[in-house]
Write a structure and sequence with these properties.
Elements: E1 5-8, H1 20-37, H2 41-54, H3 65-71, H4 78-85, H5 96-103, E2 108-113, H6 117-127, E3 135-138, H7 139-143, H8 150-160, E4 167-171, H9 174-183, E5 187-191, E6 203-204
Parallel strand pairs: 1-2, 1-4, 2-3, 4-5, 5-6
Bound molecules: magnesium ion (MG).
The site of magnesium ion has 7 residues, from loops.
Length: 214
C-alpha cells in the first residue's frame, strides 16, 4: 500500500533540543525557583532536577509546563517564557526546510510531538515550520498518550483517517518514535544526526535522505 503521509517528531528531529527546552528546564526554571525561594542557583537546580527525575518520561504530566510552574510555586506565565525562548529560526536544523518543501509536494506532512499543544504552536510559529504540516498533533494534548505508548501511534493513524501502511514516522528517539511506531505496524525511520546508532536501524543521518526509505 502506498505511503501517503509522513509524520515527524519535532524536538531533536526538526529543531535542536539543545536550544529552548534545555534552557527552559535547566536554566530559566531553576533561576526563577532560586529567586522565588531565596536559595542559590545550584540548590534550586538540584531541587528541580530531583523533581523532574521523579516523573517518568512516560507520564503525561511530564509534558505540562504550566503544571511544573505551579508545582515550583512560580507565578510567571510559562507560555510567555517559552515564546521568548523560542523566537529564533536558528533552532531549526539546516536540512529541514528544503526537505519539507520537497516532500510536501508528494505527501501529506504531519507534525507529531510530545510537546503540549500550546508549546507546539509557539515552536511552530517562531520557527516558521508550521506551514509545512497539514496536521499538527500534540500526542499528550490531542491524543492523550505519550509517544512512548504504542497506542499513541494507533490513535494517530485513526485521527488521520488512514491505514497504518500509509504512514511513515520519522523521529530521533528510539523509545518515543522508532519502536512504539513499529510495534503497531507503522513504518518508522530513525534520524541519527550524530551517527550514534548501528545499522540494525532503518536510519538516516540527514533529513534529506528520508526518501530512500519511502
Ligand atoms: Mg525527539
Amino acid at each position: 500500500m502506498a505511503i501517503t503521509h509522513i509524520s515527524f517528531d519535532l524536538d531533536g528531529t526538526l529543531i535542536t533540543l539543545a536550544g529552548m527546552e534545555f534552557k527552559l528546564w535547566y536554566d530559566v526554571v531553576p533561576t526563577l525557583y532560586s529567586k522565588k525561594h531565596n536559595i542559590s542557583f545550584s540548590e534550586a537546580y538540584a531541587h528541580c532536577r530531583r523533581e523532574y527525575d521523579k516523573v517518568s518520561l512516560k507520564n503525561i504530566i511530564f509534558y505540562d509546563p504550566p503544571r511544573w510552574f505551579k508545582e515550583f510555586g512560580l507565578e510567571q506565565d510559562s507560555r510567555e517564557i517559552i515564546n521568548n525562548l523560542s523566537s529564533s529560526k536558528e533552532l531549526v536544523y539546516p536540512d529541514v526546510a528544503p526537505t519539507l518543501e520537497l516532500l510536501q509536494q508528494k505527501y501529506k506532512l504531519v507534525l507529531f510531538t510530545n510537546t503540549d499543544r500550546s508549546g507546539m504552536e509557539i515552536k511552530l510559529k517562531s520557527t516558521g515550520l508550521g506551514k509545512y504540516f497539514s496536521e499538527q498533533i500534540s500526542a499528550v494534548s490531542d491524543i492523550g498518550f505519550v509517544k512512548t505508548d504504542p497506542q499513541a501511534y494507533e490513535k494517530l493513524v485513526e485521527k488521520l483517517g488512514i491505514q497504518k501502511e500509509n504512514l511513515v514516522h520519522v523521529g530521533d528517539y528510539v523509545h518515543h518514535d522508532y519502536e512504539p511506531a513499529r510495534s503497531v505496524g507503522v513504518k518508522s525511520i530513525l534520524i541519527d544526526r550524530d551517527g550514534a546508532f548501528d545499522d540494525t536501524y532503518d536510519k538516516i543521518l540527514t533529513l534529506g535522505d528520508v526518501e530512500k526509505f519511502l
